[in-house]
Write a sequence for this structure.
């Protein structure tokens, strides 16, 4: 691996020599805070008032950038996802599916105006003549498709979605199904995708037998074998107490325990690439992984903390599906994509990450393993260890029973089994799909992140953040702005996976097997996406093919 360092200073970026990057090394460096920067409280990301020429900064378009209609609709989708995270707290599985539904509806509408491409639900049945394959018609069709799909997945936010549609110059009340018009194409394409996904195993409507009537509720009867009062099997998952922000505690249940039953887009079945059995309790492999997680937690650098937060995101997190779509937007800007390429690229990444979450959750439910939060307590029971002491405390000695990840008290660790890592699986899939689609592993972006901004340490000095046993660190820079290098898609996925070990959410095995799983999914799926693009795809038997409501 190589790291190409780009140093921030007086808004200039200077290339320095590449150097080896070990698995345990943070791909980040402290950077002098540039003048005129703006830090977003929701993400901790630092954006520059003026972009240096030729530098690709994550999530920061140049002032003269002209996004395609697909890019703008993806912006709207990501904002809708952030709003959903505020209402319902971040739900990565659900967000990955909503992203895929909206982006698939957009792709299917766009395909009607392409010479070869076929849609995922109606194939080539919506194909329009060459004279109608204009940019204006494509933009209008994907707009109506996005609007209808957004209303389906985020019906709690209908007023906002309608207003956003109006702002873009469209009529939210136009429900035409006349496919001689782009409005009709968009509405019909979206309807077919919606009907296909209405009962796909996600329980979006809360009407699956066995559920409690609530949307996205588990209907499979999952119950943890362990409780904090009675530990039956130390390997298995157990609820983790969070602060409720009001002085009390709450222990969330397994989020979307049913997700391994959701219909994938390109996989034959959710368990098609099920990862191997994880290490058992008391084995040398698991003991080694737990020891590493505890040791890393006690020695986190400022750079590693920034990377943990960059990949974790904050209360408006769009999940790893949203994050990889933001990486994809960086690529769109870098390559100067047109509308056709953006539609296909976003569709590919959105769906492969959805499939990654489905396969990942199938493994989580099948193996049901715990996380470092409990394992550190069990392995070092009755002993003193070192660990993160909380905001502004740095590393302190503590009883093993008080060990905690580098995370806010309101979100100690994700509320579901650990094996395999969702971040790693989604990142393995998204990164490999970007490599396959673009034909290169090159990414070349950087991100600027303020360390501590998302873990209650925004007002804490870097010296206090890195304190040991109450003594502030003397060898850290004053600035907490960290430059994170993202040289390749592969390295970015590895950083995402490593961040989960550094954060204390996962052991190494969770991350390594997650990356492998995600990459397998992308490699297997890529020919299917290509077949849709070149018109050779055969629709699956479950595809909606009825066209009785289509006006010709």
């Amino acid at each position: 691996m190589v790291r190409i360092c780009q140093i921030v200073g007086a808004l200039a970026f200077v290339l320095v020599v590449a150097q080896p990057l070990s698995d345990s090394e943070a791909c980040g460096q402290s950077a002098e805070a540039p003048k005129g920067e703006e830090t977003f409280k929701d993400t901790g990301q630092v954006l520059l008032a003026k972009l240096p020429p030729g530098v690709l900064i994550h999530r920061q378009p140049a002032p003269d950038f002209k996004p395609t209609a697909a890019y703008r609709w993806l912006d709207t989708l990501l904002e809708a996802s952030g709003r959903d995270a505020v209402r319902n707290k971040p739900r990565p599985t659900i967000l990955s599916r909503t992203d895929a539904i909206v982006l698939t509806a957009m792709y299917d509408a766009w395909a009607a105006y392409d010479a070869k491409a076929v849609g995922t639900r109606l194939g080539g049945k919506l194909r329009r003549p060459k004279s109608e394959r204009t940019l204006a018609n494509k933009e209008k069709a994907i707009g109506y498709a996005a609007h209808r799909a957004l209303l389906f997945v985020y019906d709690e936010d209908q007023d906002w979605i309608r207003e956003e549609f109006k702002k873009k110059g469209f009529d939210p009340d136009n429900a035409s199904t006349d496919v001689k018009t782009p409005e009709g194409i968009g509405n019909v394409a979206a309807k077919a995708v919606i009907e296909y996904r209405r009962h796909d195993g996600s329980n979006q409507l809360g009407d699956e037998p066995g559920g409690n009537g609530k949307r996205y509720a588990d209907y499979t009867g999952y119950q943890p074998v362990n409780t904090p009062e009675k530990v039956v099997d130390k390997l298995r998952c157990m609820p983790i107490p969070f602060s409720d922000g009001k002085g009390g505690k709450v222990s969330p249940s397994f989020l979307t325990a049913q997700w391994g039953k959701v219909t994938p887009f390109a996989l034959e079945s959710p368990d098609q690439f099920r990862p191997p059995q994880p290490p058992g309790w008391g084995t040398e492999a698991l003991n080694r992984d737990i020891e590493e997680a505890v040791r890393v937690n006690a020695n986190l650098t400022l750079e590693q903390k920034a990377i943990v937060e960059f990949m974790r995101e904050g209360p408006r997190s769009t999940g790893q599906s949203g994050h990889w779509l933001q990486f994809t937007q960086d690529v769109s800007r870098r390559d100067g994509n047109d509308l056709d390429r953006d539609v296909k690229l976003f569709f590919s990444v959105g769906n492969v990450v959805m499939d990654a979450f489905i396969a990942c959750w199938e493994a989580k439910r099948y193996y049901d393993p715990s996380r470092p939060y409990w394992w550190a307590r069990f392995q070092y029971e009755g002993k003193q260890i070192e660990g993160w002491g909380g905001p502004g405390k740095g590393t302190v000695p503590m009883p093993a029973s008080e060990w905690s990840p580098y995370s806010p008290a309101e979100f100690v660790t994700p509320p579901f089994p650990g094996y395999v890592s969702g971040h790693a699986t989604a990142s393995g899939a998204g990164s490999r799909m970007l490599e396959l689609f673009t034909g290169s592993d090159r990414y070349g972006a950087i991100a600027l992140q303020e360390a501590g901004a998302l873990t209650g340490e925004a007002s804490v000095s870097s010296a206090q953040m890195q304190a040991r046993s109450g003594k502030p660190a003397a060898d850290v820079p004053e600035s907490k702005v960290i430059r994170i290098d993202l040289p390749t898609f592969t390295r970015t996925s590895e950083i995402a996976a490593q961040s989960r070990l550094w954060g204390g959410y996962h052991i190494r095995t969770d991350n390594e097997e997650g990356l492998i799983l995600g990459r397998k999914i992308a490699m297997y799926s890529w020919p299917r996406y290509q077949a849709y693009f070149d018109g050779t795809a055969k629709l699956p038997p479950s595809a909606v093919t009825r066209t009785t409501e289509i006006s010709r």
Remarks:
- The chain has a mean pLDDT of 92.
- Residues 2-66+280-534 form one domain.
